[in-house]
Write a structure and sequence with these properties.
The protein has 101 residues and is mostly helical. Helix content is 44%, strand content 10%. A two-stranded antiparallel sheet has the order 1-2.
């Protein structure tokens, strides 16, 4: 009988203390206790998002991708051209032709 009474006392939950104030919960890892090394290696977890910087980065990445697409499109047009020199020594652009044609 003694064992049962001690087990029932251990399993019961304590009533909330009226003197304790509930702490505000912060989203993410800002409220978690971490080391300075962890914060230095993972700053994106602790810094609030900066919308103007995000917009600038999105525009910059988009322009870089558009420029690469432009280079790819113009390279296909220049692929069949080469600079040739005629018998008089002047240079001109000529389309590549196959010996089989």
């Amino acid at each position: 009988m003694l064992k049962y009474s001690t087990l029932s006392n251990m399993s019961s939950t304590k009533p909330p203390n009226e003197n304790e104030t509930p702490k505000e919960r912060k989203p993410g890892l800002r409220s978690v206790q971490t080391t300075m090394l962890f914060r230095a290696v993972n700053p994106e977890l602790f810094i609030k998002p900066n919308k103007p910087v995000m917009a600038f980065g999105l525009i910059a990445i988009s322009l870089c991708v558009a420029y690469l697409g432009y280079l790819h499109a113009t390279a296909e047009n220049k692929k069949d051209l080469y600079e040739a020199i005629d018998s008089e020594g002047s240079k001109y652009m000529r389309r590549k032709t196959s010996k089989w044609d």
